[in-house]
Specification:
By secondary structure, the chain is α+β, with helices and mostly antiparallel strands. The protein is built from 9 helices and 6 strands; from the N terminus they run αββαααββββααααα. The strands form 2 sheets. It has a 4-stranded mixed β-sheet with strand order 1-5-4-2. α3 (28-42) packs across α4 (47-72) and α4 (47-72) runs parallel beside α6.
């Protein structure tokens, strides 16, 4: 499990110097510090673009949680102030203490816990404070989620398809959202089709960064 987490930029009991936590990220002062750090690294021209960049990194953290639930029947269940953020190789990664990993007996409850604890609060905070669509932020997460579930299904992880189906249900996202954004991104495709022919519905705004081209799956790409 440790190696699979590290491939997604999540490190257990890491010794790296963190400069903030996910709890800090949701404060006025902490959000300004984070967005400035992102802008310093990427030259993002606005806070909205910087927030989008960070949520592409947070997508790794959430996807790592879903992978741990499906493949290892474990998840990190610690508080936000135990999730450290550090900078390395011109990007942002996460540290978590191993003592807060717990066994998962009910995957659906575990998935809801991940969304409610590490997903919705951050999406709502940044959507409000930097005026960026929740659909953009969640699609930044979705790109890694669909990729990982695709891998797990190919590898024969028994619960992967069931867990993904649960994330596509509208009720899984209520009351924070009326509909499952993950289902919206499928655009009437099946999940398996979307895995092999991935396209975005929203633009992640990375094209706004100097000397950065549109992603090949950008909805604005010709």
């Amino acid at each position: 499990m440790k190696s699979s987490l590290e491939r997604l930029s999540v490190f257990m009991d890491a010794t790296q110097d963190t400069f903030m936590t996910l709890a800090d990220v949701q404060t006025e002062l902490g959000s300004k510090q984070l967005l400035q750090a992102v802008r310093d690294v990427t030259d993002a021209p606005t806070d909205a673009v910087a927030a989008s960049v960070f949520f592409r990194r947070l997508g790794f953290f959430l996807a790592a949680q879903f992978q741990s639930i499906a493949a290892h029947h474990k998840m990190f269940a610690g508080p936000l102030h135990e999730v450290g953020v550090f900078q390395e190789d011109n990007t942002f990664k996460f540290t978590v203490p191993s003592e807060h990993f717990v066994a998962v007996e009910d995957a659906e409850k575990a998935i809801r816990f991940v969304l409610d604890t590490y997903g919705h609060p951050l999406v709502q905070f940044y959507s409000k404070h930097v005026h960026i669509s929740k659909l953009i932020l969640w699609e930044n997460v979705w790109g890694y989620v669909i990729w990982l579930y695709g891998q797990m299904i190919q590898e024969g992880v028994e619960s992967a398809e069931k867990d993904m189906d649960f994330l596509l249900l509208d009720d899984t996202w209520k009351p924070q959202m009326r509909r499952s954004p993950f289902k919206q991104y499928l655009q009437n495709q099946t999940a398996l089709d979307a895995m092999t022919d991935y396209k975005r519905v929203t633009c992640c705004l990375l094209k706004e960064i100097p000397n950065t081209q549109r992603c090949p799956y950008c909805p604005h790409a010709k």
